[in-house]
Specification:
This protein is α/β, with parallel strands linked by helices and 457 residues long. It has three domains: 41 residues; 204 residues, 3-Layer(aba) Sandwich (Rossmann fold); 164 residues, 2-Layer Sandwich (Ribosomal Protein S5, domain 2), CATH 3.30.230.10. 23% of the residues lie in helices and 26% in strands. Strand 15 and strand 16 form a beta hairpin. It is globular, with a radius of gyration of 26 Å. The N and C termini lie far apart (71 Å). Bound molecules: adenosine-5'-triphosphate and magnesium ion. InterPro entries: AAA+_ATPase, DNA_repair_RadA, P-loop_NTPase, RecA_ATP-bd, Ribosomal_Su5_D2-typ_SF, Ribsml_uS5_D2-typ_fold_subgr, Rubredoxin_2. It comes from Candidatus Amunia macphersoniae.
Length: 457
């Protein structure tokens, strides 16, 4: 706990960006160098510097005398979440969970809290956006063990800290970090200085008490977690819950993890009883009715370590006038434009007077370059009105020279395709892997060679 702060008599000016104070107004902040962040209107009555309790001098230990901490990892039992976390919740870790409004952040956080807590030692759920009754209603709908979660409807940072320090729950959730108000920082709750103060304080509490803390965070229009840019550096784990809000699937992506690999994907479906994990996604991301149409191609993406069979759909239509449009959902637009240029230059597919629309079925966002060739074949197939076999998958990265490059974890991808009953695969010629029993492999060295495999439906 902090020593109580005494109010100083004089007025100070506080930087809204970093919280550093100045005795009088100045254009540039001494702390972060930002201009015009100390406005006259931001003048607040200053507080005396925090009195730090005297501490013993820290003693360093050689690594062999420090345990590896394996016993501090606590699996939550939600395997899709544990996979992204790197095995489970690590004691004393600070986990940031971001996602679009209404995507299911509070649902996931509550389900996790209920799994980790037990009657007698419940998890602590600090609700800043909802009342305790609303959280209880959701918990009932989700079928949570109600005695395993204690709810605190509170937005004051010090009250949240006090609750964590005194009760030492097995897990604490702060929903959301943008609603916390820190009396020691300037600005309204949710402002960069407030969020930074709240996260710094909770980081200290997590490390001191060993209580893992999940911070639910809002995202900005650009998709980044709202708050100071340094926020993601301060926490141990950053997770994003993605998906189409009105769709059924939700994907939990680990973008930073100090205790496990990043890029891992957890798959869930949103149901009335909460998020249900999809251990074996299988054909969940396929739309059987649309296969066999020009522009539809199956691929096996590898997000993290998991192979996932997904369907890519492209539509190419003449540009009515002016500049051709290119839109993409679930795939990077810049990468799509690059592939369109490769198709134009290296495979003579005319697209300069055509609108190109690309969609990855099921709301999956693909960051894996191993799906490049499938995207190129989908666009070329749509442009030329040619089909590709619904029983085949396409895997390979595409280079600027139109060459097809090796994709990572090809064996795992082909294994998944075979398990789902596919009979053929287009793969890079450079890969020398033997073909799995049930798959006929077409090895291609260039995009142009791959397009020869398209045929009239
Ligand atoms: N009765 C219900 N049946 C099925 N799904 C529901 C039901 N109630 C809510 N949901 C789902 O839960 C989602 C809201 O979940 P949740 O409140 O956890 O989202 P959130 O990310 O915390 O939202 P916010 O950003 O507003 O805090 C809804 O979009 C809906 O998909
Ligand atoms: Mg919420």
């Amino acid at each position: 706990m902090n020593a109580p702060t005494a109010r100083a008599a004089r007025t100070e000016y506080v930087c809204s960006d970093c919280g550093v104070t100045a005795p009088k107004w100045q254009g540039r902040c001494d702390g972060c160098g930002a201009w015009n962040t100390l406005g006259e209107g931001m003048a607040v009555v200053g507080t005396a510097p925090r009195q730090r309790p005297s501490r013993p001098v820290g003693r360093a230990l050689t690594l062999d005398r420090i345990g590896d901490g394996a016993d501090q990892v606590r699996p939550s039992g939600i395997t899709e979440l544990d996979r992204v976390l790197g095995g489970g919740v690590v004691a004393g870790s600070l986990i940031l969970l971001g996602g679009d409004p209404g995507i299911g952040k509070s649902t996931l956080a509550l389900q996790l809290a209920a799994r980790v807590g037990v009657a007698g030692a419940p998890s602590l759920y600090c609700a800043g956006e909802e009342s305790a009754q609303q959280v209880a209603m959701r918990a009932e709908r989700l079928g949570c063990r109600l005695a395993s979660v204690a709810v605190l409807a509170e937005t004051d940072l010090e009250a949240v800290v006090a609750a964590v320090v005194t009760t030492r729950p097995p897990l604490a959730v702060v929903d959301s970090v943008q609603t916390l108000s820190a009396s020691e920082a300037a600005g309204a709750p949710g402002s960069p200085a407030q969020v930074r103060e709240a996260v710094t304080r909770l980081l200290g509490v997590a490390k001191e008490t060993g209580v893992p803390i999940v911070l639910v965070g809002h995202v900005t229009k650009e998709g980044a977690i709202a708050g100071p840019r340094t926020l993601e550096h301060m926490v141990d784990v950053v997770l994003y819950l993605e998906g189409e809000r009105h769709g059924e699937h939700r994907l939990l992506r680990g973008v930073k993890n100090r205790f496990g690999s990043t890029g891992e994907l957890g798959l869930f479906s949103m149901e009335a009883s909460g998020l249900r994990q999809l251990d074996a996604p299988g054909r969940a991301f396929l739309d059987e009715t649309s296969l066999g149409v020009p522009g539809n191609v199956l691929t096996v993406a590898c997000e993290g370590t998991r192979p996932l069979v997904v369907e890519i759909q492209a539509l190419v239509a003449p540009t009515p006038f002016g500049l051709p449009r290119r839109t993409s959902s679930g795939f990077d637009l810049g990468r799509l434009q690059l592939l369109i240029a490769v198709l134009e230059k290296r495979a003579k597919v005319r697209l300069n007077q055509a609108d190109v629309f690309l969609n990855v079925v099921g709301g999956v966002r693909l960051a894996d370059p191993g799906v490049d060739l499938a995207v190129a074949m989908a666009v070329a197939g749509a442009a030329r009105d040619l089909c590709f076999s619904a029983r085949a998958v396409v895997v390979g990265e595409v280079g600027l020279a139109g060459e097809v490059r090796r994709a990572s974890r090809l064996e795992a991808r082909l294994g998944e395709a075979e398990a789902l009953g596919q009979t053929a695969a287009v793969v890079p010629a450079s890969s020398r892997k033997p073909s799995p029993a049930g798959l006929r492999l077409h090895r291609v060295a260039t995009v142009a060679a791959a397009l020869d495999l398209l045929s009239e439906g």
